[in-house]
Amino acid sequence: MASPVTFWFEFASTYSYLSAMRIDAEAEARGIDVTWRPFLLGPIFKAQGWDTSPFSIYPAKGANMWRDLERRAETYGLPFDRKAEALFPQHSVLAARTAIVGLQADWGRRFCQQVYLAQFARGLNISDPSILADCVAVAGGDPDQALDLAQQQPQKDALRANVDTARAQGIFGAPSFLVDGELFWGDDRLEDALAWAQRV
Amino acid sequence: MASPVTFWFEFASTYSYLSAMRIDAEAEARGIDVTWRPFLLGPIFKAQGWDTSPFSIYPAKGANMWRDLERRAETYGLPFDRKAEALFPQHSVLAARTAIVGLQADWGRRFCQQVYLAQFARGLNISDPSILADCVAVAGGDPDQALDLAQQQPQKDALRANVDTARAQGIFGAPSFLVDGELFWGDDRLEDALAWAQRV
Questions:
Q1: Looking at the 3D structure of chain A, how many domains does it have?
Q2: What is the pLDDT of residues B106-144, one digit of tens each?
């Protein structure tokens, strides 16, 4: 019996895009249950003294990340457009709160994937409620109801609690995977995390 | 005909250890030529405002790195001892200059591997000339001659030139792999770099 995996993701995170598109198929093939938990890196980065993404603070690191992302997306057969770079890092609070609504219903994961595709394959602004509404609709939810719920206190509290929980578990970047107390960081550790879940 | 790969490594770098132990066998199996080039991350980190390793500056990131390194070393069948953490990051200038001597002879790569094993499998201090002398001897070089040469101006200049070249090529971390102008960063991109070399 494989252990469950918690998938911690941030909508503004480039490598979270790759994992969000890959994780369910990879986990299902191994018989592993996955729980999706959106969080925000902003407060965690701020505590480290950064006021934006390290990819923006350190230009050589950022340049390599975009090229690496492009190569990796091609390897995985995922669409990617470099114009996404112009808006990076995007404000992801409303998307994350909307994901919390969707993940309590049955359209959450498809919504998350639509948000990532809007951002990284089409270069759209995912802080725009109309873009998010389109993503909810494609995912099979009710856009008006979802965005209304997303802006209510329970969803704000739930997202804040996710950030606190992430930090308490030693999470410092995204995507991260937690399996039986083991933390794996980065899309390139997805397979390691799934192997750990099957370790017994 | 596969393209050649340049392997940029820093002796103090934990993930460079994994690549230094893996790259030649992986490259040989694919018919790829590899050039080893030691450099120093200190001057590059300093230019980014860091006075030590980011793994030391950011504790959550550091904690994850050590655990990840332990897991990855086990996967690769490489020895690793957590006591290496106590001396991290080590002063690597003399080791790097000695490597430059060895890489001009025929014992350089074995020397590099011995230095990494001394540091990460045995927890030894690789800034200690007697430790480096042992590594030279095991690798098949003349320890006295090698350490004497390592402290002469041509080797100092060569290492400085390596740092300048690394920075000019956009290198910001170690290990890094350069193939036909494509930069790959991290031991977890070694296979990507080798695949790129065979891309044609």
A1: 1
A2: 999 999 999 999 999 999 999 999 999 999 999 999 999
User: How confident is the model over A12-42, as pLDDT tens digits?
Assistant: 999 999 999 999 999 999 999 999 999 999 9
Please indicate, yes or no, whether the overall pTM of this predicted structure exceeds 0.90. Answer: yes
For residue B182, what are its two tokens? 């494509």
Q: What residue in A sits closest to B48 (Cα-Cα)? A: A58
- Whether the CB-CB separation of A174 and A13 falls below 8 Å is answered with yes
Q: CA angle, corner B8, sides to B4 and B9, nearest 5?
A: 140
- Nearest residue of B to residue A168, measured between CA atoms: B60
Please indicate whether, in this complex, the C-beta atoms of B192 and A71 are within 8 angstroms of each other: yes
Q: Which residues numbered 73-112 in A keep a CB inside 8 Å of some CB on B? A: 75
Q: What is the DSSP string of chain B?
A: -PPPEEEEE-TT-HHHHHHHHHHHHHHHHTT--EEEEE--SHHHHHHTT-SS-HHHHSHHHHHHHHHHHHHHHHHHT----GGGGGGPSPP-HHHHHHHHHHHHTT-HHHHHHHHHHHHHTT---TTSHHHHHHHHHHHTS-HHHHHHHHTSHHHHHHHHHHHHHHHHTT--SSSEEEETTEEEESGGGHHHHHHHHT--
The CATH number given to whatever domain includes residue A26 is 3.40.30.10
Q: Which tokens go with B100?
A: 């430059």
Domain that holds residue B140: 5-197
With CA atoms as reference, report the closest residue to B40 among B190, B169, B174, B170.
B174
Q: What ipTM was reported for this prediction? A: 0.91
Residue A133 CB neighbours (<10 A) = 17
From B76's Cα to the closest Cα of chain A, the distance in A is 12
Question: By three-state DSSP, how is residue A136 classified?
Answer: helix
Interface touch B185/A67, C-beta < 8 Å: no
